[in-house]
């Protein structure tokens, strides 16, 4: 089964035209050396070797940024195989589609030196053809985003299917108005972060002025929100859940926290977790009662119509 990645080719897709013309896709991330034969058998080996190198050349950056950069390079250059798909946005946010057609090669002295040969399709997938959830997940600044969870949605369009309306039905939410508002929960929280209780003590994770802590990629899936305490001593992993919550979310967030602890924290940092959901239950409370570093926060959805003056 093919994998799918959203690969941004330069700032605002500035290198897309060249990539289409020359039949490749590439990334930069500030490692200026040929990586052929240096990826190792696992991304952890690559990260262990290249995070210190990346930090030496970017002394003003954090280990979190280094881990993000090195993992993105390893995935694109080494993990993707021939036949996997990439979707690359243009300046308008629509996507050109291509499939990986060969192994990694190095293009020294170029804007995108770490490259894969790509067989580009002569078509554009328009942003309006995709679900709201897909559009939100791909509009961030990261150059390499895992979009495997939308494989069914993408494959229908690639097979020539007509644009489809993706249902907003959710069996865990009885009130359709509540669910419609919950679809935007993550974006709403980001936009209003400074006014939340968590925002008093933690900052959203930014890099070069752009938010990178939203849908932060890990080897077990993306973290909804990754934040850092205002004193820099703690990384906070936030998992958002719509509707009723299963106690399985505790294991999920612990996996994310384990990744952050192992790959992103510096010597002076610790990791905590927060689960945000509509309501908890006995199973979740039992699971959290034996943890010391995961908290639960509930949210409320309030939708009102207020009548104004009438003529």
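-> sequence recovered:
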């Amino acid at each position: 089964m093919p994998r799918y990645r959203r690969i941004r080719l330069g700032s605002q897709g500035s290198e897309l035209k060249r990539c289409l013309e020359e039949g490749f896709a590439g990334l930069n991330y500030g490692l200026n050396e040929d990586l052929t034969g240096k990826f190792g058998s696992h991304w952890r080996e690559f990260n262990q070797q290249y995070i210190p190198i990346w930090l030496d050349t970017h002394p003003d950056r954090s280990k979190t940024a280094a881990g993000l950069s090195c993992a993105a390079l390893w995935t694109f250059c080494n993990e993707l195989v021939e036949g996997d798909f990439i979707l690359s946005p243009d300046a308008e946010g629509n996507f050109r589609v291509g499939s990986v057609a060969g192994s990694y090669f190095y293009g020294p002295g170029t804007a995108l030196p770490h490259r894969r040969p790509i067989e580009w399709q002569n078509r554009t997938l328009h942003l309006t053809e995709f679900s709201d959830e897909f559009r939100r997940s791909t509009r961030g600044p990261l150059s390499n985003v895992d979009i495997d969870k939308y494989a069914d949605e993408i494959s229908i369009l690639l097979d020539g299917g007509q644009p489809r309306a993706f249902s907003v039905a959710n069996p865990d939410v009885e009130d359709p108005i509540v669910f419609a508002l919950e679809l935007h929960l993550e974006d709403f929280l980001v936009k209003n972060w400074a006014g939340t209780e968590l925002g008093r003590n933690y900052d959203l994770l930014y890099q070069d002025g752009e938010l990178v802590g939203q849908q932060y990629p890990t080897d077990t899936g993306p973290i909804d929100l990754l934040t850092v305490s205002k004193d820099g001593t703690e990384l906070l992993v936030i998992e958002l859940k719509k509707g009723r919550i299963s106690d399985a979310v505790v294991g999920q967030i612990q996996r994310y926290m384990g990744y952050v602890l192992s790959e992103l924290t510096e010597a002076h940092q610790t990791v905590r977790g927060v689960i945000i959901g509509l309501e908890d239950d006995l199973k979740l409370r039992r699971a959290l009662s034996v943890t010391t570093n995961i908290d639960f926060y509930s949210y409320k959805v309030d939708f009102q119509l207020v009548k104004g003056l009438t003529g």
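The CA atoms of residues 68 and 217 lie 8 Å apart.
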